[in-house]
Write a structure and sequence with these properties.
This protein has 480 residues and is of the alpha/beta class. The protein folds into two domains: 268 residues, Aldehyde Dehydrogenase, Chain A, domain 1; 191 residues, 3-Layer(aba) Sandwich (Aldehyde Dehydrogenase, Chain A, domain 2), CATH 3.40.309.10. It is built from 15 helices and 22 strands. The strands form six sheets. It has a seven-stranded mixed sheet with strand order 14-15-16-13-12-18-19, with helices on both faces. A six-stranded mixed sheet has the order 9-8-7-10-11-21, with helices on both faces. The longest helix has 21 residues. The protein binds adenosine-5'-diphosphate. Adenosine-5'-diphosphate (ADP) binds next to helix 7 and helix 8. Belongs to the aldehyde dehydrogenase family.
Length: 480
């Protein structure tokens, strides 16, 4: 792998943090130190905000075509560098390199899609109630955007925010997760190569609390776009109230996956396998509670258990299906959930333990796990596990499945498997979720509005709706 710049990128320059401090970054597959990264703080965040603020008037007034061309070039370069970006991601995040490349390319697609959408940020002309007037509605970029992103999708969670923000004419300050700074910095190498004007896109890695404080307190930041945990999202929302900053939040989920008696069980099991073990269960749209109709529970459990045996776990640099968990804290939470479930009567059908021996001793590896007989008293039913655990819960009636599925403060992704259209429509209507997969377990598509309701967040990312989150409406009343 070619060397990475590994610094902050502020106002078009690579720079060390003001503190000159660097912190060590570790590979979750081996426990080895990969490199060190700068520890940015409030002063660095302030400089990045100033740069973005200074660049905003120029960038927001470029033509849509000009912005579109920049975005298209970024897309081309990410695609051309996909192998390198994937390797960087696997090193710091752990997911298998093939999966990492898939994420890099999917992330690149946001630049392709928004390079087109940049040209379609249209306004409206509305007839007024007075005949001498026309009401014009323009959509204008909101200003400086702070994008705070998580470690589970180190590349695409940045591109899903930055591409629409730049398309809209906003400038950005990115604060990536401390676990995965290199994937973020590598994207900025590309932004530099395409010659984005200085200050349009800036990155500050380092102390989350300090950087976050500055992003919240600095009135030049007009919008916070966050993907991460619900507690941090609530904090950012609360703190944004002081200056009434706009906020988009993509927070935790607790996805129900409902398999009805008439479902194509093979398709449901395949869909669940992909959904549950993508990124080792560390996604906010992973199935966390699998509701199976009692009449097919035994058959479906056996089918899924058989598929689960085919999953290989190991260092993501090798040809495996699943890598390590991000760190030991994640491992402890996953195992804690399994132990709690077993203590309360669940049965381990497969897995249920930390993997050990050989390479497993150096990383946070957990066996793909299937639990049956799960009930609402267990932690797995109440909290997001964020790991490779599939908890099965039997249900009798449609009403019961819907009631249990909605019995959570979260409302991000949900899934139903049935062959019946009437069941599909009835259940999809009643599920309190932002997204419903119907005989489909993948939901992240560049064209689609990804996002949640209830305590899973606000705002949408992707598609036309995704660019809206970076725009304000301005209404002109034209009297003639
Ligand atoms: P996780 O628990 O999965 O790491 P977090 O919500 O803690 O999820 O992290 C998501 C992102 O939010 C990361 O970039 C993290 O550094 C950032 N973050 C955490 N705490 C704060 C904070 N107080 N202010 C700003 N950003 C924060």
């Amino acid at each position: 792998m070619t060397e990475i710049r590994n610094q902050l990128f502020i106002n078009g320059d690579w720079t060390e943090a003001r503190s000159s401090l660097r912190s060590a970054l570790f590979n979750p597959a081996t426990g080895e130190q990969i490199t060190t990264v700068p520890v940015g703080g409030a002063e660095d965040a302030k400089a990045a905000i100033e740069a973005a603020y200074g660049a905003f008037p120029g960038w927001s007034r470029t033509s849509a075509e000009e912005r579109s061309v920049y975005l298209r070039r970024i897309y081309d370069l990410i695609v051309a560098n996909a192998d390198r970006l994937a390797e960087i991601m696997t090193l710091e995040q752990g997911k298998p390199v093939k999966e990492a490349k898939g994420e890099v390319l999917w992330g690149a697609d946001f630049f392709l899609w928004y390079s087109e959408e940049a040209k379609r940020i249209n306004g409206e002309i509305i007839p007024s109630s007075r005949t001498t007037q026309r009401i014009l509605v323009q959509r204008q970029p909101i200003g400086v955007v702070a994008a705070i992103t998580p470690w589970n999708f180190p590349s695409s969670m940045i591109t899903r925010k930055v591409a629409p923000a730049l398309a809209a004419g906003c400038t950005v300050v990115v604060k990536p997760a401390p676990e995965t700074p290199l994937s973020a910095i590598a994207l900025f190498e590309i932004f530099e190569q395409v010659g984005l004007p200085a200050g349009v896109a800036n990155i500050v890695v380092g102390n989350a609390q300090e950087i976050g404080r500055e992003l919240l307190d600095n009135d030049k930041v007009r919008k916070i776009s966050f993907t991460g945990s619900t507690p941090v999202g609530k904090y950012l929302l609360e703190q944004s109230a002081k200056q009434v900053k706009k906020v988009s939040l993509e927070l935790g989920g607790h996805a129900p996956f409902i398999v009805f008696a008439d479902a194509d069980l093979e398709a449901a099991a395949e869909g669940l396998l992909y959904n549950k073990f993508q990124n080792n269960g560390q996604t906010c749209i992973c199935a966390n509670r699998i509701f199976v109709h009692e009449s097919i529970e035994a058959e479906f459990t056996e089918l899924f258990a058989k598929k689960l045996k085919s999953i290989t776990v190991g260092n993501g640099m090798k040809d495996v299906n699943v890598g390590p968990l991000i760190h030991d804290r994640a491992l402890a939470k996953v195992h804690g959930h399994v132990q709690d479930a077993v203590a309360k009567g669940a049965k381990i059908v497969a897995g249920g333990e930390k993997l050990s021996g050989g390479e497993y001793d150096n990383g946070s590896y957990y066996a793909p796990t299937l639990l049956s007989g799960v009930t609402s008293e267990m932690d797995v039913f109440r909290e997001e596990t964020f790991g490779p655990v599939a908890p099965f819960i039997a249900f009798r009636t449609e009403e019961e499945a819907i009631r249990m599925a909605n019995d959570t403060p979260f409302g991000l992704a949900s899934y139903i498997y049935t062959r019946d259209l009437a069941t599909t429509m009835r259940v999809a209507d009643k599920l309190e979720y932002g997204m419903v997969g119907i005989n489909e377990s993948a939901l992240g598509y560049v064209q689609a509005p990804f996002g949640g309701i209830k305590q899973s967040g606000m705002g949408r990312e992707g598609g036309q709706h995704g660019v809206d989150d970076f725009l304000e409406y301005k209404y002109l009343n034209l009297n003639f």
